[in-house]
Structure formats: C-alpha cells, structure tokens
User: What shape does this take?
Amino acid sequence: MDREVTIYDIAKKLKISATTVSRGLNNNSVINSKTREKIHQTAKELGYRHNTLASSLRKNQSKTIGVLLHEVNSNFSTSVLAGIEKIATAEQYDLLIAHSAEDYTKEKANAKNLLSKRIDGLIVSLALNTEDVHHFDPFFERKIPVVFFDRVINNVKCTKVVIDNFKCGYDATKHLVSQGYKRIAHITANLTRNVYNDRFEGYKKALQDKKIPFRDELVKICSLDKEATIITVEQLLKLKPDAFFITNDFAAAVCINLLHTKKIKTPKDIAVFGFNNDVLSDLVTPKLSTIDYPGMQMGEVAAKELIKQLKSSNKKTKSKTITIPSTLIIRESTVKTLK
Amino acid sequence: MDREVTIYDIAKKLKISATTVSRGLNNNSVINSKTREKIHQTAKELGYRHNTLASSLRKNQSKTIGVLLHEVNSNFSTSVLAGIEKIATAEQYDLLIAHSAEDYTKEKANAKNLLSKRIDGLIVSLALNTEDVHHFDPFFERKIPVVFFDRVINNVKCTKVVIDNFKCGYDATKHLVSQGYKRIAHITANLTRNVYNDRFEGYKKALQDKKIPFRDELVKICSLDKEATIITVEQLLKLKPDAFFITNDFAAAVCINLLHTKKIKTPKDIAVFGFNNDVLSDLVTPKLSTIDYPGMQMGEVAAKELIKQLKSSNKKTKSKTITIPSTLIIRESTVKTLK
DNA sequence: CTGAAAGCGCTAACAT
DNA sequence: ATGTTAGCGCTTTCAG
Assistant: This one.
C-alpha cells in the first residue's frame, strides 16, 4: 500500500463524484440506495479508511470529548472513566484522556493541548493544588462546554457533578460518636480542594452538634500515600485518639495494618473510618466502614450533561450543580459489638 | 470570539506571509529571531491556538499513539498507562486510549477507529477472547508500528513486551511445594490467553519436577471476579486442597477472606498465593505472597520501543520479544513459620 | 438524486 | 530570510 485510498479513488472507479461518495459513506438518505450500496462495496474492496482528521477539520468538530483527570491511578478514576466511556461510546464520541498527576502546571498544559486538538467538550477533575481556573477561559470564550466533577471550584459558571461531601463527613463522624468514640482524629488532604474541605466542615459540625470539643491538633493534612499516612498516624497516636476518620480507603487500610502491627485492636481500642468504598475496603481485616462514592455514576452523569450541552443549540452556560447520592457503609472497623 | 484566529490573521496584522508565521510559531531556526519574537507576541495578543487537526492532516502524522487495553479498571492497567504516558509525554506524543472490556468485537471496532484517527503507532494488550489478530492487518499494511504487551499472540511479526509467565507459575508452585504443600489448587482465567496458559504450564512443570502428581480436577478456570471466585473456591474446597495458586491478587484476597469466614487458617491449613503485587496484597491479613508484575516498567518499555520504531526510517517490522523481570514476593500467606 | 467548486488551517516545495 | 503556490481529504454550499 503506497498511498491511502481516498474518496476520489472510489469516485473515479465508480465514475461518480467525490461528493456522492462522501454522502454515500455517511449514509445520507438523499443518495440512491443502490449507489450507496456500490460505494460501500467499493470502499471495502479498495481498503478505504475514513480520514477523521480531514473530516473534523472541515466540519470544525471532532466528535471527541476531552477528559482531564487529577490522576488516573485509582479505582475511583477508572470507575469514572468507565462511566464516561459508556455514555460517550453510545453517543459516538471518542475520548481524549489527559491527567495532571495532581499538578497545576501540568493541568494547564493539558488544557491547552486539548484545546488545540479541537475537542468538542471537556470533563475535568481539578488537581490538588489548582486554585484558579483561568486556564479554562479559552474554552468558555469559544463556548466549548466544560463539566467539572468531584474536584470542583465554586466561582465558575458551568455544570458540576459532585457528592455531598459535607454530609458524608458529618455522617461518618456522627456514626463514630454514636459508637462511643470521642477523640476522633481526622486525616485528610489539601483543604483548598472542596472535597476535603467539605468533609472537614462536616466533621466539625458533627462534633459541635454532639457537644464534643473540636481539637485542632487531631486534624492532620497529608498526601495519603503509604509513607505519609504511616508517619501521620504515628504522630496522632501520641495524642491518644480513639478513632481515625481518614478520607481515603487506601490510607485507612494502611492505618488498620499499622495498628495491627502495634497490637492495637480495631475497633475495640481504636476505630477506623475510610472513604470511597474501594474494593480493598471489604478485603482488609477488620472490614472497613466507609462512604460509597459512586464513580461510575458520576462519570455517566458528567458525560450525559456534557453531551446534552453539545447537542443543545443554546450555548449559554449557566451554573448547575448535580449531587450524586452517596452512602454510609458500616462494617467491622467502627462497631465494637460486631467484632 | 466569533471565529478562530488563524496564522493568516497574524500574517495580515504583521504584513508578512502565513508561511513565515507558521515557521515562526514552530521555532524554525531559519526565521529571523526578531520576526519570530513578533509572531509569538502577536499570536498571544490575538489569542491564537494551533490547530493540530490541520497540521496533522497536512503532515500526515498526528503525533498521537493509540493505546488499546483489554480493560482499564485495575491497578495493573493504570500502572502501564502511567508508564506509557511518562515516555510519550517526554517525546511530545499524545495518547488516544481505548479499551475493549475483554471483548473481541469491541477490540476490532476500537482498532478501526484508532486507524481512522491516524494514530502514528499502537500499543495493545489483547482481550480475553481474541484469537486472531487480522484486525491489526491494516496497521501492518500501512507500516504503522504496533507493540503488544502482556497479552500477546505468537504468530505475529512485531515487538512484544512480556514477563516470563511460565517461570512465574513455576516459581510460585515450587515455593508452595517447598513449604510442604502438596495438593495445590490452581484458579486462573481463559487459557487461550498466553499469560494464563504459560503460568499453568509452569505450575504443571513444577509439580512434575517435584514428583507431585498433576490433578486436573484441582485446576479451575473462572472470570476471577468476586462472585465467580467464591463459587470456584467453594467447589475446590470439597477436594481438600492445602494451597491455592490464584493468578490475580484480588481473587486471592477474596479467597483469603472466604477461608477466614470458614475458620480455615491461612497459611496453617491452606496457603494462598496471588499474582500481580497489587496494593491490596500487603494490606490483607495475612499478607499475600505474590508475583511482582511491573506494569509501569512494561508501559515504559512498550512506549520506548514504539517511539524507537517511529523515529527509525527502517520500516521493516520484525519479531522481537522483550521480557521484563518479575519477582517472587513471599509474605505471610504461604509460610507457616512466619505466622 | 447528483455534481462542481470552494475552503477548513496548515506546511512543504520551490522560488527569490 | 521570506514569499508564492499548491494541496492534505473531506464536506458543504449552490446549482442543476
């Protein structure tokens, strides 16, 4: 094969125009069905492949949705991706996936790159240290719809898909208090990110409602990876907490293991509450109480919202927040009587 | 913003030609540095965005690598992806990611779609039920390099990146035997896929070398998801095995939990050996012995190989297999004396 | 129902 | 160092 087969090759062979071939291949109903049949037939014979690049350039739309993730190495991200993919595929959109590895600079570069690739719309979860969203202005200026999910920012006029992180933080803490725990340590990540801040606010409010004094020293920010979590838990143990509310199941599992190593019994001596309902949460011993965080559903809803905007002729962007239901899952790690 | 700014707008404003603008924006050294400066300046002022579509169409290369995964919802896949991404980004390639959800039909459709998107090269891990690779012929015909990793097929002339699955299966089994286990059950997936078949062959060979009779009824194929694993383990328990070699850490963790529920002690009564060195493998109790399966490194190597071919003028494809080192990791679940 | 002509935005060959 | 011209492959008027 020397050169790609084009619609002109098909046209020449059939002694018709390239226009007709184009229409035939796109199953345009205006074309005679016999002609269309012949076109498809010949295309197959010659080994023709549609050139999406040329088509997108001409139509000025790529049928591609950009997905900009804060990271890709987690069950949550892949669930979201699966949800987005399910909807996008059904609607014949392709996905162009980029990830920022939790880095603002990389997020900016990715946004620029996706723009130059002429994506039709964008779905975003912000990096940990992103504080402004001016790098998305070029999308807004061009009326390219943007949907944020999970990691969102408030002062921006577009659709956001989230869970009620305040309520989750509140309910988790309330549950721990109701089980008799009083010195509840909280390990979480960067509070500039809504998800962590809202959970923290929920934690504080629950303590307040239950008349338990809030102690600043029991709250620690860390990266939630294995090493950082171990160090943080060690530090907090000196303050004799009777429970840990950790906003990530992996970190919570690391905590459970560390306590076990130290012969501290969970949940008898210290309870551990996680976040995400990751697969590992019911494989550790004791099984972890957590919050079910429906990634797949968030992805589906985000994609549906985006595609709805893509199809709508009304290009006015307005603020809209969709809250996906999340659920408290109580397992062994926080209930003394179960174990 | 009504219309996208093009290089012609910049050219007009500066009273120079579009060619010069194009060259300037691409930092072509032939352009006077002052002119280049002015071009970049004006581009910024006008809000110019490079149109990758037009550029790719003209150059007949997209600087994009297609990645076709068997699934995306696992630590292994995301590690591989991270490895590929690291190399690709450094070399200024973008990634177009598709996944087949273990389905041959979807894999075919994805291959076709990636081809029409004019990807410069392709990295593939085959779906569970893929038995022929004719859907990649269009790539071979066009001399678009294809690199397979992990899930490969033999009779195809291109680069493959794998681990030594036979050796892994052999070593895991040998380890179990050396610990005194004799009735070793093997739970794995579809044996038409090289990874599972090779491990199985390794398992058989180790038994043979150790003079332990191979028992067909102790080998079960299943999907390795939670439900299927539970059913399979239950069936095998009737045959009184003293060890399980399960080719997936998640399934192995499910097995450990099930045994725990049944008051069967691991590793005292029954040992469990996994595969992948997933994060959960050292968070379960007892910690799981497993094979370290370096996804990140596989991704890096696959991407490096592909880019090497992309840069080479020699377009002859030849068969080449690269084996990535994998490691036996012995933890508590298979060593009686440790626990 | 089909075709001719134009152009999406960019870059490469060939001047100068 | 810069400009002229042509064309990548497709779709979209507009005209029959």
About this structure: The first strand of chain A starts at residue 64 and ends at 69. The mean pLDDT of chain A is 93. Residues 4, 6-8, 18-19, 22-23, 26, 50-51, 53-59 of chain A lie near DNA strand D (CB under 10 Å from a C1'). The radius of gyration of chain A is 26 Å.
